[in-house]
Design brief:
10 helices, globular, single chain, mainly alpha
Length: 243
């Protein structure tokens, strides 16, 4: 890995860590597209999984008193049910079509949250459905965040509860994903080297994010979440069009 590639990798990790610790999600969304400029796409996913797990587990522990355990259980268990369905879909449906559907779903979710931001009176089926979609998207497109964001934002959680809850869910899914990578022998020397080099920058990004997050009020945090969700939709749309 050249000097410029190392700098690109570290910048990607730093930016992603800061954003995730401010708002609670967005590590893979930001890190992977930036990392692929510097490292192999396969290694980018592995590195992002390792580091994202470190960031989300820190945030989950730090905010454990604000985490909504009922939401965590419903979303995590239903995601486990969705994972095998996602694998089945991945093996039989064109990936570009899936990304197009994902983009359309994300834009619809942003529209719904903008027009009807409070779904707090919805039944628990909201989390069950969102968790199921999250698991299916995780195993088909490696993108599990948007349904979780929609469900938790729809519940109108304050930003502290949102961060803590979604971080706990990401920690659970991250452990399962990482264990799967290790079991399938997808982790190689280059990805581990990238993780080790990035750890100091990850720590610095976490520290900066922790310092900045108190400055984000409830209204601005909601806008920030919707902007990141829209960015995920744009990324999926580009992937569907470009391939």
């Amino acid at each position: 890995m050249s000097g410029s590639e190392i700098i690109g990798l570290l910048l990607a990790v730093g930016v992603a860590a800061v954003v995730q610790n401010i708002v609670g999600f967005g590590f893979a969304l930001l890190a992977v597209p930036l990392m692929v400029v510097a490292v192999d796409p396969h290694d980018a996913v592995i590195i992002s999984t390792f580091l994202g797990l470190g960031s989300s587990s820190f945030q989950a522990f730090n905010g454990r008193h604000e985490a909504q355990r009922g939401l965590i259980v419903r979303l995590s268990l239903s995601a486990l049910v969705g994972i095998p369905v996602g694998l089945l879909v991945f093996n039989h449906v064109d990936e570009r079509f899936l990304k197009g559907c994902l983009a359309a779903g994300i834009f619809l979710a942003v529209f719904v949250l903008t027009r009807s931001p409070n779904l707090s009176h919805a039944s628990p089926r909201l989390e069950i459905g969102a968790g199921f979609l999250s698991g299916a998207l995780s195993s088909s497109l490696s993108t599990n965040g948007p349904p979780l964001v929609f469900a938790l934002q729809g519940r109108g959680l304050p930003i502290a509860q949102f961060r803590a809850t979604i971080s706990a869910i990401f920690t659970i899914s991250g452990v399962i994903t990482l264990a799967s990578f290790i079991a399938l022998r997808k982790v190689n020397y280059e990805s581990l080297l990238g993780v080790l080099m990035s750890l100091p920058v990850l720590g610095l990004g976490i520290l900066i994010g922790q310092r900045l997050k108190p400055r984000l009020n409830e209204e601005n945090s909601r806008r920030f979440v919707l902007v990141l969700l829209s960015a995920a939709g744009c990324s999926a749309f580009v992937g569907a069009v470009v391939g």
